[in-house]
Amino acid sequence: MKVLVAVKRVVDYNVKVRPKADGSDVDTANVKMSINPFCEIAVEEAVRLKEKGVVSEIVAVSMGPKQCQEQIRTALALGADRGIQVETDAELQPLAVAKCLKALVEKEEPQLVILGKQSIDGDNNQTGQMLAALTGMGQGTFASEVNVEEGAVKVTREIDGGLQTVELTLPAVVTTDLRLNEPRYASLPNIMKAKKKPLDVTNPEELGVDIAPRTKTLKVEPPAERQAGIKVADVAELVEKLKSEAKVI
Amino acid sequence: MSILVIAEHDNAELKGATLNTIAAAKAIGGDIDVLVAGNNCAAVGEAAAKVEGVAKVLVADNAAYEHQLAENVAKLVADLGKNYSHVLAPATTTGKNMLPRAAALLDVQPISDIIAVESADTFKRPIYAGNVIATVQSSDAIKVASVRATAFDPVSAEGGSASVESVDIVDDAAVSKFVGEELAESDRPELTAARVVISGGRGMQNGDNFELLYKVADKLGAAVGASRAAVDAGFVPNDMQVGQTGKIVAPDLYIAVGISGAIQHLAGMKDSKVIVAINKDEEAPIFSVADYGLVADLFDAVPELETKL
Ligand SMILES: Cc1cc2nc3c(=O)[nH]c(=O)nc-3n(C[C@H](O)[C@H](O)[C@H](O)COP(=O)(O)OP(=O)(O)OC[C@H]3O[C@@H](n4cnc5c(N)ncnc54)[C@H](O)[C@@H]3O)c2cc1C
Ligand SMILES: Cc1cc2nc3c(=O)[nH]c(=O)nc-3n(C[C@H](O)[C@H](O)[C@H](O)COP(=O)(O)OP(=O)(O)OC[C@H]3O[C@@H](n4cnc5c(N)ncnc54)[C@H](O)[C@@H]3O)c2cc1C
Predict the structure, then answer these.
(1) Which of A20-57 are b and which e, b meaning 16 or more Cβ less than 10 Å from the residue's Cβ?
(2) Global ipTM
(3) What is the model's pTM?
(4) Average pLDDT over residues B122-146
């Protein structure tokens, strides 16, 4: 069966971003960009399913400006077979991303679509659920275990109270949590091979998708700064401060 | 304006996060209805009717909604949500799973994790692990938003006298099935609702050593949390993870033990009122947000803390 994996280009998780001085946007000039960590886990899961013989083809998709081809190449180096870029320089919101993915799902007819549960820039945690809604597929979100069976997939999900397992009819959508797997590193020969793998470029107009934003960011600002407090000398002083100064115990 | 709030519950009890979500609805203003979708959940409907400020409770009682399968509940929420100006749910794993699906069915771009209401169409929400706060305005006809519970003081669970109506729409998408669950059993308070939280990180070295934290927790009536490193290493289960991708907590007192203070961890706890850090490395970034820092070996400091409490 075929798997579609969505990979997003984001500011690297080690970068501490700041708003621009005028508060219009986040300052992302000259910062390191990477594949969203949850998307890397999505690619790894697809590759493992292929190694198990469950999956025959992995298609990696990214939406955004030309540069997001870098993240598609990363996915190809990790083991995806071909890439599709949906090119646009416009702001893409999760509903628009989900609509583009739906158009690709109709074309490619994958049995499984794997996405990250959230991207570490927008932190929306929406796209997979919205794609599932638009295509009528079942959704296994925040997955920590995925088992493909005959015509179905069993997904164990990380929920507030612990773990929940659901069974979804294929085709289905899965979004990855951190403990689903530990992604491998791409080897140099695989990085070289990835450069020759096919990468098609399309765009939202060709897919017939209206990507007009529905929300507008009026302002971005830093959160209220916390002042560093004091160092206490020992446990006795700590307990004393918590009792008489902070009054929290 | 009319607001539909989706109740968080386990078919027996109304969960606290619903009260914070109703508080956000009050900040928007307008009539507030609460939807209880579940199975044999009449008691939850009654509890919701007593909540301060609720006009009407809609109870959809059907086996299709028993386990909050998003495929079924989202369809119901979209069917009912059409008649409202706003649809809100708590930003719990249940809300985050279901609400975007309902929004897509309504052709709405939802707003995740709001921490403040600026006006009926404008909200604040954290992005980039809380390093940036964005003010976002929605142009959709229906506003769909998930609410970060710690950012809104709960309304009172008593004092209301809403009417209760049953809803007989049964949406069963028949593409998903509940197989089972493993829920953590604990006598301690729930992490996101506790007044005091004590969390352990990689510095704890193993799961058995968390016993040191449990002892302190029991003296303080605290919940116990963990960093991702401690969960990944298998010391404790996933439901204890605090952070960008785990739970968001804002207790009166947060005690971080053997946690370095990565931004992803800070994202989940830096709105706590008082933060204590115990770490043997005086350079650890956690000290930059701690009100009280103790540079010490946790294996000495934590047992001593327990005896001094
Ligand atoms: C002030 C401001 C300005 C912004 N300007 C822009 C802008 O100009 N252009 C822009 O693109 N964004 C911009 N953004 C970011 C944008 O709002 C969100 O990041 C975007 O809506 C996607 O949300 P998400 O990734 O958080 O979705 P989530 O639902 O958290 O993403 C979950 C998963 O969906 C998949 N996915 C999401 N997006 C893509 C994608 N593009 N390609 C492939 N897979 C994807 C991935 O698998 C990802 O792990 C801006 C944000 C702010 C705050
Ligand atoms: C996409 C993404 C999402 C993430 N989400 C989260 C999240 O939700 N929550 C989260 O917590 N992390 C998250 N992380 C991980 C985060 O980046 C850090 O790796 C993690 O928080 C580190 O955990 P830690 O502080 O326990 O471990 P470490 O960074 O290894 O720190 C251990 C600390 O213990 C101290 N120590 C060791 N021994 C002792 C002793 N005997 N006495 C006293 N102190 C001692 C050390 O000095 C050190 O400071 C995420 C990462 C990514 C990439």
Answers:
(1) eeeeeebebeeeeebbbbbbbbbbbbbbbbbeeebbee
(2) 0.95
(3) 0.91
(4) 96
- Determine the 3-state secondary structure of B276 from DSSP: strand
Residue pointed to by tokens 């007044």: B195
The pLDDT score that the predictor gives to residue B102 is 98
Q: What are phi and psi of A142, to 5 degrees?
A: 55, 50
Q: Tokens in use for A137?
A: 């597929």
Shortest Cα–Cα distance, A141 to chain B (Å): 7
Average pLDDT over residues B266-294: 97
Residues B200 and B220: their CA atoms lie apart, in Å, by 16
Q: Which of B127, B128, B146 to mutate to test the pocket of ligand 1 (most atoms within 8 A of CB)?
A: B127
CA dihedral B11, B13, B17, B23 (to 10 degrees): 110
Taking the alpha carbons at both ends of chain A, their separation in whole angstroms is: 58
Ligand 1: residue whose CA is nearest its atom 1: A25
CA-nearest of B193, B152, B145, B124 to B26 is B152
**pLDDT under 70: residue ranges of chain A:** none
- From the CA atom positions of chain B, what is the Rg in Å? 20
Nearest CB partner across the interface for B137, out of A19, A179, A215: A215
Question: SS3 for A116-168, per residue?
Answer: ECCCCCCCCCCHHHHHHHHHCCEEEEEEEEEEEECCEEEEEEEECCEEEEEEE
- State chain B's mean pLDDT as an integer: 97
Does residue A94 line the site of ligand 1, with CB under 6 A? yes
Min distance B6 CA to chain A CA atoms (Å): 17
Q: How many residues does chain B have?
A: 309
Quote the DSSP letter at residue B14: B
CA distances from B11 to A102, A117, B36 (A): 34, 26, 9
Q: Which ligand is nearest to the CA of A98?
A: 1
- On whether the CB atoms of residues B246 and B269 are closer than 8 A, the answer is no
Alpha-carbon span B38 to B10, nearest angstrom: 8
- What angle do helix axes A127-135 and A94-108 make, rounded to 10 degrees? 50
Cα separation, B9 vs B159, whole angstroms: 20
Average pLDDT estimate for B46-54? 98
Ligand 1 proximity of A38 Cβ (cutoff 6 Å): yes
Q: At how many degrees (to 10) do helices A69-78 and A37-51 cross?
A: 30
